[in-house]
Amino acid sequence: MPSPAPQFTLVVAATLTNGIGTKGALPWRLSREMAYFAKVTREGGPRTSHPNAVIMGRKTWESIKPQYRPLKGRLNVVISNSIASVDDLAPVSASEHPTLLASSLESLVAGVEASNAFVIGGASIYTQALEHPATTRILLTRILEPAYEECDVFFPEIRHSNQWAQAEHTDLEKWVGFEVPQGVQEEKGTKYEFQMWVRKQDSSA
Q1: Residues 26, 43, 113, 193: which is the catalytic one?
Q2: For residue 150, how many other CB atoms are within 10 A of its CB?
Q3: In angstroms, rounded to a whole number, what is the distance separating the alpha carbons of residues 137 and 73?
Q4: Which one of the listed residues 30, 33, 89, 172 is annotated catalytic?
Q5: How far is residue 53's CA from residue 75's CA, in Å, rounded to a whole number?
Q6: What is the pLDDT along the chain (205 residues), one digit of tens a residue?
Q7: At the topology level of CATH, where does 8-202 sit?
Q8: Domain extents for the chain?
Q9: β-bridge pairing 117-119 and 135-145
Q10: Rounded distance, CA 62 to CA 65, Å?
Q11: Is 172 a catalytic site residue?
């Protein structure tokens, strides 16, 4: 009997105005934040015998440099209606975990075998995931300053939502399973903070 599909966790870095990208790329280059992203998506969350999965749209996949995709140590899932087969995702480098193609988030609920399923973009996939009942938490890196006003792609607003609440930092560390720097971090002139938000009816998770 196949394992039940995991719940979705969004992983995103966003400014105070919810900017997440500009001209198809990240407007910041933060090595410690990227290391956190890599560790969370590879090792974070409750574990089973299956690897974690990273779920992304076609544009996010294409924004990853070819030598770095698929993201290693994770099951890579690309959501697209315009790609006919996984072979069309080339160049796909060798990896111990395969790359899968899916037509929608809903199709994944039926049984992607992964310990945890992390949705990593882009904007339209984030929006779909936020509306999906299987999405229970958001691992948000809040970019505090500078404003990065050049952003032209945005994450939906969750701070004033009646569906989402910010969790305590200890809950973030408990869920990911490792220590996470607390409070405002600074790197290359950019200030940011690691946060976790949970769906309110799932706040005890």
Answers
A1: 26
A2: 10
A3: 22
A4: 33
A5: 4
A6: 455 667 899 999 999 999 999 998 999 999 999 999 999 999 999 988 899 999 999 999 988 888 888 999 999 999 988 766 666 665 555 555 578 888 888 888 766 788 999 999 999 999 999 999 999 999 999 999 999 999 999 999 999 999 999 999 999 999 999 999 999 999 999 999 999 999 997 444 4
A7: Dihydrofolate Reductase, subunit A (3.40.430)
A8: 8-202
A9: unpaired
A10: 7
A11: no
- Per-residue HEC secondary structure of the chain comes to CCCCCCCEEEEEEEECCCEEEECCECCCCCHHHHHHHHHHHHHCCCCCCCCCEEEEEHHHHHHCCHHHCCCCCCEEEEECCCCCCHHHHCCCCCCCCCEEEECCHHHHHCCCCCCCEEECCCHHHHHHHHCCCCEEEEEEEEEEECCCCCCCEECCCCCCCCCEEECCHHHHHHHHCCCCCCCCEEECCEEEEEEEEEEHHHCCC
Distance CA 132, CA 149 (A): 29
Kindly report the pTM of this predicted structure.
Answer: 0.90
Strand 117-119 and strand 8-15: the pairing is parallel
Contact 12, 191 (CB under 8 A): no
Is residue 187 among the annotated active site residues? no
Cβ-based neighbours of 191, under 8 Å, separated by 6 or more: 143, 144, 145, 184, 185
Residue 50 to residue 127: CA distance in whole angstroms: 26
Query: Residue written as tokens 């809950």?
Result: 171
| Displacement of CA 28 from its chain's centroid (Å) | 17
